[in-house]
Amino acid sequence: MTSPLDRDWILAHIPHQGAMCLNDQVDAWDGDKLCCTAWSHASPENPLRIDGRLSPLAGIEYAAQAVAIHGALHGAGSSPGMLGSVRGLTSDCGRLDTLEGPLRVEVTRLGGDTRALLYAFDVQGEGRCLLSGRLTIVLTASAEPSA
Q: What InterPro entries does this protein's entry cite (predicted)?
């Protein structure tokens, strides 16, 4: 791991652009894990808001984008993917947009191959876990799995 990576780095390395790029900074990473910080949950311009509210389920997209960042850091940018499934989902909040302070998004690679990746995730805020589970990313192009 090196020094934190900012939003400009993230925008240059994942397909999510503008307000749809939800994570603002990469704080730490290694071969299996990545931690991000996000402030976009508090923005009235967050594109995932419905009727002005941001559901805790939006945390799944924060986690999926963290997986995309992790892939970009390990040379998987040529192998785009899409969210295939979410399992074991737990939530301990009613809304993300009312939280004070940043969100911390952590993803941990559990396994994968050239067709799909499995990650555990948790989204934290205000000193507690807000949302956690596992997500499967289906790779849309064949590539060697990153180490």
A: ApeP-like_dehydratase, HotDog_dom_sf
- What is the residue-wise DSSP string for 14-61? SS--GGG----EEEEE-SSEEEEEE-GGG-TT-TT-BTTB--GGGHHH
Residues 30-61 pLDDT 10s? 999 999 999 999 999 999 999 999 999 999 99
pTM beyond 0.85: yes
- Please choose, from the candidates 46, 59, 68, 105, the residue with its C-alpha nearest in 3D space to the C-alpha of residue 86: 59
- In angstroms, the CA 110 to CA 136 distance is 10
Q: Which domains does the chain have, with CATH numbers?
A: 7-139 (3.10.129.10)
Rounded Cα gap, residues 101 and 12, in angstroms: 25
